Structures are given as structure tokens and as C-alpha cells.
Amino acid sequence: MALPNKVKKLLSDAEQLTDYRDCSSYFYKWLQNEFSKQPVGNLINARAEFIDRLLIKLFHVYDLAHEPDLALIAVGGYGRGELHPYSDIDFLLLVTEQPSEAICEKIGQFVTMLWDLNLEIGHSVRTIEQAIEQKREDVTFATSLLESRLLFGNHIEYEKLKAHILDTPIWQSDEFFLAKVNEQQLRHKKCHGTAYNLEPNIKENPGGLRDLQTIIWVAKKHFRAETLQELISHGYLTHEEYQELLECLENLWNIRFALHLAAGRSENRLLFDHQPLAADLLGFGSDGKASVERMMKRLFRIMSRVRELNQMLLSYFEQSILPESNEQAVIELDRNFERVGHQIRVKNPSVFFRRDQLFVLFEHIADNPEITHIYPSTIRTIRQVRRRLLGDLQDYAACREAFLRLVKHPNGMGRAFTLMHKHGMLAAYLPQWRNIFGQMQFDLFHAYTVDEHTHKLINNIYQYFGKDNVAEFPICCEIVTRMDKPELLYLAGIFHDIAKGRGGDHSELGAVDAIAFAKLHRFSTSDGKLIAWLVSNHLLMSVTAQRKDINDPDVIKDFATRVKTERQLDYLYCLTVADIRATNDNLWNDWKNTLLRELYLHTQRALRLGLENPMDQRDQIRDKKHQAKQRLINNGYDENQIDLIWSRFKANYFTAFSEQQLSWHTEHLLNCDDLSQPSVAVSNTAMHGGTQIFVYSPYSGGLFARLVSVIGSKKAQIQHAQVLTTRDGYVLFSFVVLEVSGDPIASAQAQSIKRGLDQALADPKKKIRFKKNRSQRFKDFNIKPKIILRPHPRKDRSLIEIQAVDIPGLLTKIAEVFQAHLLHIHAARITTVGERAEDFFVVSNNEYQALTDEEQAKIHQALRKKLNAETE
């Protein structure tokens, strides 16, 4: 695409810095306007041409064009003639010998001018010897030279360098290939090995532009190929695959180009805040989540295709470049399949006319732990079969039998399942899986697409069967050893989110799909119902553990009533742990683990006692008191003193805390010199999955706000909080806090928090400095706070429920509103789930009565105003 004549004229006439800036500004506006009108390849070539002309003109302006020993060489993406709107401009100034001071000064002026034009440049000045030496040490530099292009100057020196790049023994084909493969593996590892992060890097993610470029780089080095098309004549690509790669490349270019325009800078990561504008620029619409979903689904499917083609071609290259790879032993698996080294290969592609043989291939992978990959020619065959399918593989009875054999195989849901997912066989088998392939999840929990999240969940369940995980997941590992039908757990995992993106309750819709699957695959009615029940209730255990008081016998009884049997409890617990761990790498921690384990054990006990004989609350309190008191007496404390302190506490205190917490609180109070004064205790070690903070103080209106402000100012995350009042006007605060990493608070930090809380209690007027450091991520979701005011079982109390993004200082803001309206906080339950806070407060007005309708309206409005201001 030729540059517009006006751009050429503006550039030709430019003399002052402002002229060049005006020319650049006009050109960038032209790029934006043309984006929706012509192929993106034309535009990225046009920017490269514009930069060519600009550099060459400035080369003349600063009198560098007349230096006979100087060559201006474009390298990297610029060398390929591909520049997105804000891509870096990499060039090499090649000299025959070290330049003189005068030339260095001209070069400095040349480079400074480019900086003044706000261009992101990467440049170096090298002799041939220096360039060769750097090439020897740095494969990335060697790669950039492969794509070099002479812009202006000494062509003889450039040709010498180019010949050296291809013909010298430095970075021979085999070394170069191994270096690029290793580079790719490290890059993929940084992306957690998946292309399906919800904020993918268009260049670096598996299936991104770098994977395509790696193919081209190896082809250039080994085959001297200048284009992908030349790989057809070498027998590595079919015409269809070549067209597919071009289509994928153009789609990735389009998305990256739109991302640059949306971000207004060089940006490769498709962050949430850039996705809506990028989707609009790409023509997916401007209807918010729906348009983003359409764009991202397209992107993820493209990346999946690129990743598969990349693996296939690199495997072919390996056979050509590394001769020893062809000397691997061939072991026959059956009459249709054989193992070649660590890969499985089909002997005759026509075998897949029997569709069930597709699953037999994965059965062999399950049978043979030595198999880690699929042979490249077999990948090609699978791709061809996939494209030619006229229906779903589950329509074939033989496929259904083979699929079930795989699900029931002890190793079937390990590497075999991963490769099935990776090579599109799940989508070919289950029509519902195609719907969630590349499906975004618009919440603050999930870090992956629905299909990748589900794949990770299945992998987590599979890990329960390994001995290496017993220490970390003892209950799950023990449960699966006695589980009569683990395949039902796997299938519940496959279907738990399979209805996402369809509208409606995905749990209920997924349960319907599970029943249909069970009938088609001839499961018994009871087995089908169990799968469907697990799908329908897969959120029940996590919601109960994280939002309700699991020390309350009524909560346990209600949960046990819904679970009904120990068998269902076992399955649900294993599914829930696997689900949370697969949601987000940062979401699982000891606190979540402790909550779920305690809920499991409490419910197991309730089911064994019998739901018709629930443990009375008074019996529970009596048991806790007995165990806590025994601990204290064993440590030398007087029973009468213990009873004296406990006489001040209401029954809800003893139901809210474990016997370990009761004894810890009481020991702290027994050691206080004056119980009329406030005091603070911070646990030295983790307790119940986190660092515990206990605050005892006379009641005052703004105390809660001050305490949460202190904790927030110390960069600690409040996972859980409770507020209880005593019979004699004192208040007890209990917090569970964690580091940002999810670990318990380090001892030095714990002491800092204690000092801060002591100071806040001793000097109520002292100002607390709270540094705002709000993550950009929060505004990307546009989630408005949800505020609900309800009646409380006590007629003189009101319940306030708040669901909001967990921005720094959220609790402080809420407490400030309560303080401004003279509310008394009688109890609170603060829970952080991922990056969303779900907080419940039991309050009364200044006269210790339930809130009137007028007071509720004012508080609702004040909270909305305060919290909306913080999330905008």
C-alpha cells in the first residue's frame, strides 16, 4: 500500500521539529481512518514505509548519508517491513570501523530527533566484528539480523554481514533450532502454558505471533526460505495449512493493530480496559461484554490453531534438522498405532475412518506414560478428520464406548485428557464443549476461559490419585481411594460450567445437559442423578464456607440437609476444592482450604449423627468450652478466672469461634493488667489458615473504621472479620488477615500491625495514613456495588449486605458511612472471595433500634455514592 501523497509531501517539505510532528500526526490519523477500510497488512507495511522515508530523510538532514562507511539497517519486525501503529523501531548502524567523534555527534543528533518525535526506537552502532560477536552470544540478536533490510548506505558491508548470518558456523541450524525451541518453551511457561488467559499477550502467549515467527525464523535459517509459502515446496506445509497460517496471521495482526489504537501506545497484552474499544474497532460491536466475548472467542480459537500448527511444524523441523531424532526406537502398540520415542503415531491415516480409533489413540497415551506428544503426521491427520466431521463423535456408539473407557481409565484424565483438549477432540465429541471453547468469564475470580478452567479442574482431580499430593490434600486423596465410581466426579467436572455463556443459570442448564449425556451413554438413573446433582450444586459448598458462619449449627444442618448423604458430600468436596484451585492461581490459600475442610468435617459429623438428631447449640457450646478450658487449665490458668471472663460473653461468641480461638482469646484477656482498657493480640503463627487478630475494647462509634484503616495501611488483606458485643458494653473484633500473596502475615509485619492497632486504640484522634494504590483491573469490570438492607430476626436490628469490588480501603469507606449516620455495628461478617468483597453487618440506629424506612433510604444512597465514586 503506497503512502498517501499528502504524507509524502508533508515529509518531503518538513524542516522543523514541528513539521515532522505534524506529518506524523497526520499519518497516524490516516492509519486509524483506514483501519476499517483495507487489509491490515497494507497498513503495517505503510507504517514501515513511512518510517523508512523518515529515517532516510533524517539521515540526509544530519549529513550521515555522505558517510561512505556507514549503513542504516532495519532489523527485527521493522526489518520484515511490519510495523504496527506504536511498534518499536529497531535499526542497526553498521560501520567499517569505530566512528569518529564527529560522526558520533551526528548519530546522537539523529537519534535525539527520533526521540523528540516520540518514537520508540531500539538502536545500536556496530562494526561487523562487533555484530558477529553479539550474534555469537545472543540468539535474539542473531534472530533480528535474519530479518535485516538495508535502508541506506554501504551495501557492500551489509552483504558481508548478511552472508555471515547464514553461512558462518555461529548458530548452526541445529543450535539455532534448539535455542528457539527453548526460548519458546520458556515464553510459554511464563504464560502458565496456556493461551487462554483472559488478558492474553498477543505476541508472547502460546499461539501468539511469536509462535508464528518462530516457524519463519527456523525456516529462514535452515531452509533459506523467505516466506512461509516456500515450506510447501519443502514438503512441510500443505496448501490448506499455508492458507490457514496466513488467515491466523492476518487475524492476529488485526487484533494487535486494534490493541495499539485502543491503548494509544505500544501494547501487546490485551488488558480488560482495552478490550471493549478494540472489539469496537474490529467490528465486533460496541455492546459491552457481548462484543468483547465475540472478539475474544475468535482470538482464542485462532491461538489454538496457531499453537497446534506450531507444534506440528516444529516437530517436522526437528526430524529434518536433528537427524538423531529419526533414530528413535519404534514400538508397536497394536496393528494401527506405534510409539516413536515419546510420540504416538498412526500407521495408516485411513484407520480414522473408524471414528472410535481417535479415542483408541488417547487410550494408548493413557496406557503408556512414556508418550508425551502426538507425532506430527498424526496431528495433521487428526486436523483433517476434524474438519471433515459431519456430526458429533458422540453420535457413534463405538465412540461413546471408547470415550467411557477413557474416562474410567486410571490415567485417562491425565495427559490423555490434556491432549484431547489441546487437539480439539473434546469439542469434536461434545457439542456443548464447542460452545465454551474460548468462552470469556466476566467476573473477578476466573483467570482463564471456561474450557481451560474446566481442563485445569479435571487435572486437579486427577492429581488426587497421585501419592505426591497426599500431604497437601489429605482428605481428597483419601476420599478418591474409596470412591466407587471416580468417573462420575470427572464427568461432573466436565459439565459443571459447560452451560456458561448461554444465559440463565449455568448450573441448572448444565445439570440438564448432564442428564442427557448420562442417558445417551447408558448410565444408571442414580449415577446420572448424582452427576446432575453435583453440576447443579457445584457452587453450594464454596458459597456456604465463604459466606456463612460454619460454626453455626443451623448453617451446618441446612447444608447437610441439602447434601443428604456422605457419598454426595465426598464427591462435592473433591469437586469444590478442584474448582476453586482451577479458577485463579492466586485464589487458593490455606484460609480457603481450612474453611472447606471444617465445613466438610462438621457436615460429615452431622450426617453421621443423623439429621433427625442434630447437635444442640447448647451441647456445642458446652463441648467447646470444655476443650478450651482444659487447654487453659493445662497451661496453669485458674478455672474461676476463666468462668469470670466467659460470663461476660453472649452465646453467639462461643458458636462463632473454635475451641483453639476461645482459649487464645481468653489467655490474652487473662494476661491483661486492666480489662477496662482496650487490648490487641496478633497470632504469631497461622491459625485456621491465616493470621488472627483479636481486639478487645470498650465500644465507641468509629472504632471499626479505625481498625480496618490501620490493617489496610499495613498492606494486609482482610479475608474475614467478625464483630461481637459483650453483655457489659465491650466489643470484640476478630480478623483473619493475609499477605497480598495469600500467605499468613510475616512475624515482623504482624508486630507492625499490632503496634498500629495499639496506637489507634490509645489515641482515637490520631490520623491514619492510608495510601491508595488501586489496581487498574478493578475499573475494567464496571461492576457496580450491590447494597441490600433487610430486616433482622431481632426486631431492634437491621441487616446490611454489601457486594462490591474489593478496592483498597473498602471497609474503611463503608465504616465511614456508618459512622456519619451514627450507626452501631453489633456484628459483622466480612468475606473476600477473589477480588470481590461480600460483607454483612448487623446494625442499629443511634437509639439502638432497627433502621426506619427513611434511615434505610439515606444509608443506601450514601453507600452507593461513596462506593460508586471509588470504583469509577
Automatic annotation (TrEMBL):
Q: Where is this region: Uridylyltransferase?
A: 1-332
Which part of the chain is the HD domain? 450-572
Q: Which SMART domains match?
A: HDc
Q: Which cofactor does it need?
A: Mg(2+)
Q: Which UniProt keywords apply?
A: Hydrolase, Magnesium, Multifunctional enzyme, Nucleotidyltransferase, Repeat, Transferase
Control of this protein's activity is summarized as: Uridylyltransferase (UTase) activity is inhibited by glutamine, while glutamine activates uridylyl-removing (UR) activity.
User: What Enzyme Commission number(s) does the record list for this chain?
Assistant: 2.7.7.59, 3.1.4.-
Annotated ranges, domain ACT: 692-773, 799-872
The reply to whether Magnesium figures as a keyword in the UniProt entry is: yes
Catalyses which reaction? guanosine 3',5'-bis(diphosphate) + H2O = GDP + diphosphate + H(+); [protein-PII]-L-tyrosine + UTP = [protein-PII]-uridylyl-L-tyrosine + diphosphate; [protein-PII]-uridylyl-L-tyrosine + H2O = [protein-PII]-L-tyrosine + UMP + H(+)
Signal peptide residues are none
**Keyword Amino-acid biosynthesis listed:** no
Q: What Pfam families does this protein's entry cite? A: GlnD_UR_UTase (PF08335), HD (PF01966), NTP_transf_2 (PF01909)
Offer an example of a GO molecular function term for this protein. [protein-PII] uridylyltransferase activity
Q: In the UniProt entry, what is the domain comment?
A: Has four distinct domains: an N-terminal nucleotidyltransferase (NT) domain responsible for UTase activity, a central HD domain that encodes UR activity, and two C-terminal ACT domains that seem to have a role in glutamine sensing.
The record's comment on protein family reads: Belongs to the GlnD family.
HAMAP family given for it?
Answer: PII_uridylyl_transf
According to UniProt, the name of this protein is: Bifunctional uridylyltransferase/uridylyl-removing enzyme
Q: Which organism is it from?
A: Pseudoalteromonas prydzensis
Gene (UniProt): glnD
